[in-house]
Each structure stands twice: as structure tokens, then as C-alpha cells.
Sequence to fold (431 residues):
Amino acid sequence: MKFESYSFAPEIIRAVSECGYEDMTPIQKLAIPPIRRGQDVLASAQTGTGKTAAFVLPLLQRIFDNPAALQPGVVRILILAPTRELVAQVADNAKAYSRYLDARVVSLFGGVKTTGQANKLRQGAELVVATPGRLLEHLQAGNINLSQVEVLVLDEADRMLDMGFIKDIQKILQATNKERQTLMFSATFSGGVKQLAEQILRRPKVLAADRQNTTATTVSQVVYPVEQRRKRELLAELIGRKNWHQVLVFSATREDADQLADELNQDGIPTAAVHSEKAHGKRRRSLKEFTEGKIRVLVSTEVAARGLDIPDLDYVVNYDMPFLAEDYVHRIGRTGRAGKTGVAISFVSREEERILADIEKLIGQRLKRIMMPGYEVSNRDVLLKQLQRRRFGKHKPDASSATEQVAAEKSMSGRRVKVKVGGNQQQKKLK
Ligand code: AMP
Fold:
């Protein structure tokens, strides 16, 4: 179904087609009519489903239909999102869709001075996209007036609750006009999300583009059982052998992200790490290089990846499994976006089998396991015994470091592998 069939203004249709959109995504088909009718909405939609356009487009149509002169600090539409990346992304989309309209879009997030944002607010804004914390600062400083908010959107509501924003959200809600329309978008419906929805939504239209808590159908998901300490090697091998490009890799910590990026670079795979300790500008630069294909792999922590909008992302690798099963759904939502197909690969160590079981329960599906020859977890004890025998027997290999130990293990499969020797890489035929 095309956007024209929902009778949007030609200015909006033109902007949307310049974004390259032709048909509506399922969430857009479902959400646009009730939002345009002014109904409250509770929508289950992951990142990557086209949810941003699903709420921004009908709200821009509302502004187009009812233009109004704005007092200083007054906001007509307020969108709350959990991270500055997501705020920037939603605001960028809103600016692109409103290119031919008379609508001011202002984004508010932390990490930068408030003065520039306050100056923009002084003229009033049709649409404000904000993180709850920074919005509250502006509210307390008297820079923003929420008494005339016509529509409030909570984007990634589950994330905002996970990140502890509930008190800020409550304060913001108190400052907004009670007659407003409220829209909640959430990838998962946890108890907290349901409770908040009951408090703030009035007879909402409940929508789900996919089944609740299920992963997008365009993502094929596979699991590689592998020992934790051999994950790096397996990743480099898969990327090289299968010629993967645009791979988003999730690691557990910032340190792991940096280290993995260093090691992959040493392996000749152009990689960057993004995490919360990297400056905002640097993260954006890495993302740009990644989308332009200058780097092949982006290693990210859970927090940094929220809100990253990477079109055409082909591969998501769970190098470390997430702590929460629901985060798996968010992570793999980065691929297979808006009808495109993607692959989600999970490296599961013995210790991570339990979280894998929780994930399979949550998504209601058992994931396909692929045993990579030479990396089988079950063979580990046998391999170690063989290794010990070799190390202390007649044909002792010159292996003493952990890297060399891996090489020695690999030697049992007699394959040609890259090993680090004195910091350099060499191709060796291991026997
Ligand atoms: P979102 O779920 O809002 O993060 O959107 C995911 C991606 O899909 C973004 O890159 C959007 O630009 C893109 N997108 C949104 N709607 C459509 C559409 N109808 N057709 C093609 N791409 C779309």
C-alpha cells in the first residue's frame, strides 16, 4: 500500500518519496489511521520496522492541517526517546519528512550545552524530540512550556523504563496538557510498560506489527556454540571466509569492544568500536564510515547501539550474549529492517546457554545451531588433553602463550590459519 492512499499532503508525499520509500511498512499501515483520528495508541514495534515514520508522518499532517502561531517556549508535539542517538535519528527523520512544510523541529539531549537548545526553544517549536533528562532540565530552567502539548509520544518506552527514566517521565507528564493525545511505542511489553500504559493512555488502540516479543520475520537467526576464548578467532574466520560486510558486533563491555576492534584491525579487518566513553562526534564519524563501507565491522556495547540507524545492515553478531533476553530482540532489530533481509548470529559459550534458553522462550522459537568444524565446544576436553600430550610429549610444539595455544589446538585440524607471532601476523601451515 502506498502513502498516497492515506491522503497525506503532497508536500509530505514528496518528502517521503525523496527518502526512497515506496510502500508502507506493516506498522505504518496499522498506526497511521488511528493516530490521524486522534486516538491514543500502544504499539509493539521494534527499531527497524519503520515505526518513526509511523508516528511522525501523521503528526506532521496534523501540523499541516492546523497551522498555529507559537508563543516562546511552546511545543505542539513532544517525542521522548531514551538516548541522544535515537533523539538525533528521530529528529533527522522528522526534518527530512517535513522538508516542504513550515514546521520547526528541535532536538534536546545531554552532553552538549543547554544554551543553544534554549535559544532554539525561544521561538517555540512544532516538534520537539528529547531525552527525558535534558527535557526536564529545560523545564526546570523555564525554557520550555509543555502546557499546550497536543501529542506526546514515548518512543522505545521499555528502554526508557529500563534506563530508570520513570520519575523524569512522571514529572514531564505532569507538566503537559491533560487533553493531549498519547502514543506509546515499545519493542517489548514488560510489566512496567503495561503499568505506565494503563496510567497514561485513554482507551488506546493496541497494535502489533509482529507478534509481541517476536523478532522481525526478515531476520534469519543462527547460533554458533563456541568457547568464550575462541570467539575472536571464529569471528575473524567467518567475516573473512564468508566475506561479510557491514557487521554490527555486540560486546559485553567497553574494554572488550576496544580490544576486539584492535584485534580485528590487526587481522586486517577494518573495524571501529563505539561505546559511551567515545565522544559523540567520534561515534557519529565511525557510524558514517561504517555506512559508507570504509569500515567493515562496528563493535558496540548495548548502550551505544541503542538508536543507531544503519540502513541496509546485513549482519548482527552477538559476540557476547545480552544479559536480558529482551535485549536480544532489540539487538537483532538492527538488521532485516523495513522489509530487507538480515542475519543475526549468536556466539554462545557454555556459560551463555542459559540466556539462550531464555531468549528462545521469549521469542517462541528454537534457534538453528551451526557447529563450525574446529570450534566445537564438546571437543574441548579432548582437544585440551591432546594439547597437553603434545606439549609434554616427544613432539612438543613451540607454544607457550595463549595465542600460540590456540594455534596449537588448530594444528590438530591441520588447517592454514593466521597466527600472531611476536605481534606480527604470519601465514603458517600447521601440522
Ligand atoms: P525505524 O524503525 O523508524 O528506525 O526505521 C527503520 C528504517 O526504515 C529507517 O532507515 C527508515 O528510513 C526506513 N523506512 C521507514 N519507512 C520506510 C518505508 N515505508 N519504506 C522503506 N524504508 C522505510
Q: What stands out?
A: The chain has three domains: 3-208, 219-369, 390-429. Residues 393-431 have pLDDT under 50 and may be disordered. Residues 21, 24-25, 28, 47-53, 309, 311, 337-338 surround adenosine monophosphate (CB under 6 Å).
